[in-house]
UniProtKB/TrEMBL annotation:
The name this protein goes by in its record: Methyltransferase domain-containing protein
Matching InterPro entries: Methyltransf_11 (IPR013216)
Record bears the keyword Methyltransferase: yes
PANTHER family reported in the protein's UniProt record: METHYLTRANSFERASE (PTHR43591)
GO-annotated molecular function: methyltransferase activity
Sections of the chain in a coiled coil: none
GO BP annotations, alphabetical order: methylation
Species this chain originates from: Nonomuraea guangzhouensis
Length: 264
């Protein structure tokens, strides 16, 4: 099954529009992502939300005054985003071949392409396209999934006795692939990054890599996460204290690379 078919199947079977709103883990991811946006995006300007799904982040940023263009390969997401908010524009498109002009954006978000593109060459195409459409000095925020995310998540879900789970863990650790290519029933097709891989990938595309941040950090699997989110400012502050601590990065489900396009 081709990459695009897997992505379409995954998002046909899963409610991406509700993922960041209906669970404690989704709320944590959303709040931390917006916290990172607030500190590392330029104060104003044009933002390309590449792989922006049904528009959660695009709507948030448009509400803050940014001019946002959302690009996504899933027609359902484009329909959802267009229906949900008229304050940003939407285009059907692929991160590897963006329907956007050169040097036209102050920031580019890659909140999904770098893990849905399991092949390294495809990830480079996406990063180079982000580089192309950014203005000199523009900022890239690119999200990846940690190599250890599924092991931690499956343990938290009490799935360690599932059939074949240890073979999947072995595959994750050896190759970074979420599952085997010959399993068309496994529709979440992704690449899980090692910490040390992220900066070289970003720099290979021409960016200056500035930092790697844990998105959810250690809070990913806290048993009292729902209660802590009732007063989220305290939890967000605690995560922020060690968001870039190298010894802690691997426990975060998602990681955010912050990089810039050189001025010269």
């Amino acid at each position: 099954m081709a990459w695009d078919e897997r992505v379409l199947r995954h998002y046909a079977l899963n409610d991406e529009a509700g993922r960041l709103w209906t669970t404690a883990r989704g709320e944590l991811t959303r709040r931390r992502t917006w916290d990172i946006f607030a500190r590392f995006l330029p104060e104003r300007g044009q933002v390309a939300d590449v792989g922006g799904g049904p528009g959660t982040h695009a709507s948030h940023l448009a509400g803050l005054g940014y001019e946002v263009v959302l690009v996504d390969p899933v027609p359902r997401h484009i329909d959802q985003a267009s229906a949900a908010d008229s304050h940003f524009s939407c285009q059907l498109g692929d991160a590897r071949d963006l329907p956007l002009p050169d040097a036209s954006f102050d920031a580019v978000l890659l909140m999904g392409p770098l893990y849905h593109l399991a092949d390294a060459a495809d990830r480079q195409l996406a990063l180079r396209e982000a580089f192309r459409v950014l203005r000199p000095g523009g900022r890239l925020l690119a999200e990846v999934i940690s190599r250890y995310a599924w092991i931690i998540d499956a343990t938290a879900q009490d799935r360690l006795t599932d059939h074949g789970i240890w073979d999947v863990f072995d595959l994750n650790l050896r190759t970074g692939e979420s599952n085997t290519p010959d399993r068309p029933d496994e529709v979440f097709w992704a690449y899980f990054h090692r910490i040390e891989e992220v900066a070289p990938e970003v720099e290979q595309a021409g960016f200056v890599h500035e930092r790697l941040l844990a998105v959810e950090g250690f809070a990913t699997s806290l048993g009292n996460l729902k209660e802590l989110l009732q007063e989220p400012d305290h939890l967000l502050r605690a995560i922020r204290l060690i968001e870039s601590e190298p010894s802690m990065l691997g426990v975060s489900a998602h990681l955010m690379a912050v990089a810039a396009k050189p001025v010269d």
